[in-house]
User: What shape does this take?
Amino acid sequence: AWGMLTGVRPVRLVHDMRRAGKAPEEIESFFRDKYFADGEKYKLAVRTADNQAPVLALNTPRSYSLYISIPFCPSRCSYCSFVSRTTAESGSLIEPYVQALCRELAEISALARRNRLRLETIYIGGGTPTAVSAAQLRTLMQAVRDNFDVPAVREYTVEAGRPDCTTPEKLAVIKEYGATRISINPQTLSDEVLAAIGRRHTAQDVLDCFAQARRMGHGNINMDLIAGLPLDTPARFAQTLQGVLALAPENITVHTLTLKRASNLVIEHAPNAYGDVARMLDSCALLGENGYEPYYLYRQKGTLQNLENTGYTRPGYAGLYNVFIMEEVHTILSAGAGGSTKLVGPDGHIRRIFNHKYPLEYIERFDVVQARKQGVDDFYAKYADLDPETAR
Assistant: This one.
């Protein structure tokens, strides 16, 4: 459907051509005549760009976001390629990992202050952050509160993705420590498909977790779905989408299954049991009919039928972090195993600094992590003459 168009960020092309003064018909011709993209995909890219505009306007030359990695899960999903360890096999690493993470947060806070950076958003992701205990989650979020001005950030997200480890106590901790947005990610509401991908919970568990989050005052919830999962069908996917719409979450993110080489689906040479994913995505018309608009979009190598991942939002609830990181408009300082710090200069120059990939390596070689982070000072030294007012 995207024709010959490759690349992660098709929406970036819309932004770039608009900045270059291209007329709407020239942009459409680029997508449809030069690269043979389907008309509906072109419209999706344009609508996404339109909805991103007010978010991108919040960015300044000294803006940054903070990403915190919790690379642990209750079990490993068959499609997952993230660096993540199950709590059963690596539970003993969690406590020293959290302690090291708290130390790194203090280092990042000092770096940000030295370079007069303004924190816009915080995102605690994984893995599954709620795979740690409530006490460990509290320790981590207390460290965030101690080192950063949490009330001043525009958005604070914690992924509470799986109901098999997201308890009422953990939902209370997340709320108490200032998070303004959470993710509860069913992927599907079919019990058969959940079992096929290695999830240890039911669709009803997802519904119960969502209801509990609402009762505890969480008023900005994202839900992730994946189109193309093994054993799923267009009819089942439409039922999942209708079930999620009935909950009225603020965001619904629809991913297309991507076959990544580190996933069990690829490693174990799983039989091709994937449904007609293009027909599944046709169901997303329901999102527009229910008041949701696309606000970020990206594509990946290995995605079924070369399709896309799209985040949809109700008015006023666009996930800021998702736009900032996807459009690469400002620095992301990343803490934890597998973390990739992305430094973005006001001239658009980008540099990346990588943490160790695995939790044990991160813990045992933490001094190397600290040394690498000094590259942040080196990077911003080139922009020392920026107007201090941009840091607010």
About this structure: The chain has 17 helices and 13 strands.
